[in-house]
């Protein structure tokens, strides 16, 4: 049994003041493999004080110095790729085939921030004014469990590029991954106090970060429920917030699309990250008269995917992260059945032979109506809901008929139409005809999916204050 019993404050691994411990559970076996010492409010305050003390010097570093730091952080992560990938498999249940790319993505986020930093103009002129961009201050970074490495590095990269010092509160369910990643940060030789990492619960460490007056900005990824709590809690101290929240993204396949490509791609999108991706296309919208064909294609795609131990090289879908999340997914599958959706494939319970862990049957429902629970709420598991439309107008209305607005997918052989319809979708990212994400471009949500944008230049700008100076050229 491993015991992770340190947090990282002011360039040192220290024993937290908090005395609570949390068990870390392997989602493939439900066996405890480690314990994690949790920090408390006092630890958060010490970390904030360290970040505050480091800020004046760090905020005055040159672009070159910060670009070098980002490079060193990237290199330190890549140097431990295999270990980080193994931790991702053990703690999170990530399929082996995806675990190394995950680590590489985390490192790449830092290089994207480096590029943005090197291109950014921190000083420009408007009329008779000099306009200067300055780091906003100490940043609290709060992240979820579903993509711990890349969530942390996306936010950290932007902060370092801007010149902000940080206190990171990762998910308490990512203790092992956090420990390894923090060791990489330490190995990168970043001056003390710039990066601090405090494990702990949202109600203690997270809450301190959101209310403490010395934290200028909170950059949060997680559920919409907690995002709203954080926004409320940051009002009195007038913090800036970037919130990356939940989604129920529409995957629209128009009549003129190539269904043999688009439907398997839709299933893949919904089931990405074991069905635990914020931006997954979980509502598949198809023309009513093509439903039977869609059901067949979706079933065939699901049956071609292997659910299994994440350690096995050919596994496509591993377990759900925790028993709690597993139960939530089961709940939604049962509600789908009770509310009268048609089960196309999958269903409640474990897949045969995988009863020991949090494995779920990848599930597709057809004849889902917009007023059904599974048609509206974020499930965060491999459960796809197929809804039908009669006209393109209705498809767009349905796509937008949600509180969320994170992603949307459009498939059509008429590119002109697809581009026109993309302008009518209320979502932060629209992906046409199976295109992937552009990681240098802004990412974030409309409506209840969030506030602000991450990645590249937009992520950097979110961490900057703007100062207008007039008279800068006026001799006394
Ligand atoms: P969560 O909201 O439960 O927790 C996220 C983080 O917030 C954790 O570190 C948690 O400890 C902390 N937290 C909880 N309560 C808090 C409080 N009162 N104050 C401060 N911090 C608090 O989310 P989760 O279950 O870890 O992750 C899944 C959710 O994240 C899903 O809703 C998913 O859509 C969302 N997500 C969004 C994106 C995006 O980019 N939009 C990306 C990944 C995940």
UniProtKB/TrEMBL annotation:
Keywords: Oxidoreductase. It catalyses: an aldehyde + NAD(+) + H2O = a carboxylate + NADH + 2 H(+). InterPro entries: Ald_DH/histidinol_DH, Ald_DH_C, Ald_DH_CS_CYS, Ald_DH_CS_GLU, Ald_DH_N, Aldehyde_DH_dom. GO terms for molecular function: aldehyde dehydrogenase (NAD+) activity. The keyword Oxidoreductase applies. The active site is at 244. Residues 15-469 form the Aldehyde dehydrogenase domain. It is an enzyme of class 1 (oxidoreductase). CDD domains: ALDH_CddD_SSP0762 (cd07138). Its EC number is 1.2.1.3. PANTHER family: ALDEHYDE DEHYDROGENASE, ALDEHYDE DEHYDROGENASE-RELATED. Belongs to the aldehyde dehydrogenase family. This is aldehyde dehydrogenase (NAD(+)). The lineage of its organism: Bacteria, Bacillati, Bacillota, Bacilli, Bacillales.
């Amino acid at each position: 049994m491993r015991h992770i019993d340190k947090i990282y404050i002011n360039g040192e691994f220290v024993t937290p003041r908090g005395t609570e411990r949390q068990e870390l559970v392997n989602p493939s076996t439900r066996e405890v493999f480690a314990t994690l010492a949790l920090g408390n409010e006092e630890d958060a305050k010490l970390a904030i004080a360290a970040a505050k003390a480091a800020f004046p010097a760090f905020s005055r570093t040159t672009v070159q110095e910060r670009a070098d730091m980002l490079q060193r952080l990237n290199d330190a992560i890549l140097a431990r790729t295999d270990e980080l990938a193994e931790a991702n498999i053990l703690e999170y249940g990530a399929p082996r085939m995806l675990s190394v790319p995950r680590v590489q993505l985390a490192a790449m986020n830092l290089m994207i921030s480096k590029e943005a930093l090197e291109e950014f103009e921190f000083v420009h002129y408007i009329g008779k004014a000099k306009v200067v961009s300055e780091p906003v201050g100490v940043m609290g970074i709060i992240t979820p469990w579903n993509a711990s490495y890349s969530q942390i590095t996306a936010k950290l990269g932007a902060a370092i590029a801007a010149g902000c010092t940080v206190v990171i509160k990762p998910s308490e369910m990512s203790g092992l991954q956090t420990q390894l990643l923090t060791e990489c940060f330490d190995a990168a030789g970043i001056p003390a106090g710039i990066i601090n990492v405090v494990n702990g619960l949202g109600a203690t460490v997270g809450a301190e970060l959101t209310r403490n007056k010395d934290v200028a900005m909170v950059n949060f990824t997680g559920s919409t429920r907690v995002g709203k709590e954080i926004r409320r809690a940051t009002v009195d101290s007038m913090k800036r917030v970037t919130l990356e929240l939940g989604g129920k993204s529409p995957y629209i396949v128009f009549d003129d699309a190539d269904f043999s490509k688009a439907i398997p791609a839709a299933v893949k999108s919904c089931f990405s990250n074991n069905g635990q991706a914020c931006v997954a296309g979980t509502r598949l919208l198809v023309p009513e008269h093509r439903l039977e064909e869609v059901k067949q294609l979706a079933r065939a795609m699901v049956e071609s995917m292997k659910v299994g131990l994440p350690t096995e090289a050919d596994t496509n879908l591993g377990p759900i992260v925790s028993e709690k999340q597993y139960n939530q997914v089961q709940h939604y599958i049962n509600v789908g059945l009770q509310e009268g959706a048609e089960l196309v494939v999958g269903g409640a319970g474990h897949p045969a032979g995988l009863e020991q862990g949090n494995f779920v049957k990848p599930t597709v429902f057809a004849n889902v109506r917009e007023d059904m629970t599974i048609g509206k709420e974020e499930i965060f598991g491999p459960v796809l809901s197929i809804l039908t439309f009669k006209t393109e107008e209705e498809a767009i209305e349905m796509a937008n008929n949600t509180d969320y607005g994170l992603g949307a997918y459009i498939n059509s052989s008429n590119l002109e139409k697809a581009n026109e319809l993309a302008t009518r979708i209320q979502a932060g990212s629209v992906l046409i005809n199976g295109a992937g994400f552009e990681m240098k471009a802004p990412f974030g949500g409309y409506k209840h999916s969030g506030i602000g944008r991450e990645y590249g230049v937009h992520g950097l700008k979110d961490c900057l204050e703007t100062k207008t100076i007039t008279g800068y050229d006026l001799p006394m």
